[in-house]
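[job 4471] stage=fold_predict status=RUNNING
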Amino acid sequence: MKTGLYTVSVATAETSRVYTAEDLLTMPDGDRFEIIDGELKERVMSYLSSYIAARLIVLLSRWIDLGHPGRVAGSDGGFTIFSWAPGDLRMPDVSYISTARLPRIPRTGWVSVPPEFAVEVVSPTDLASDVQKKADDYIRAGVPLVWVVFPRTSSVQVLRGDGTTALVRTGETLTGEAVLPGFEVAIDDLFADLGDETTVQDEQA
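[job 4471] inference complete, writing structure tokens
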């Protein structure tokens, strides 16, 4: 069944089993899931949210090449950084972690060190409360900068480790602030290719 940000398997909903990230390593389709509060949650992304995440990955990779050593990962890059729920696993749509924090990439499993930067791109089926919880959890776990991207309104919510927030809208520019010095993304450029609500099928009809 689908519940906002995630699809929950019927088997999960009908049992009280507490899952951990280690369980995913033994599942043939474990890469499709996150562990949130001990529950197995299937990740759901739209084409649009995947596209925007990919755009940010490209821009971050260019910034890294300018002299900011680190690793950028997509939605399969998981983190086990939640001390209040040690078995949990989150997979942000985009993340950046410096080589200072992560000198070597683990060959298996996930990263247990908080990244400097995490991004969640809101899909059409997402609930605002679910996305907000994920963003708050990243901050609580020690991620100093989080962006929540809202394609529908062409805006981005910025959350900082000091507890402050900001909403960046059309005509304004996102910056990496002190966390990602020199990294900038104009909102208009990020959403430049977005059309209206008409589907491709409707346009071709």
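[job 4471] summary: Residues 47-65 form the longest helix (19 residues).
[job 4471] exit 0
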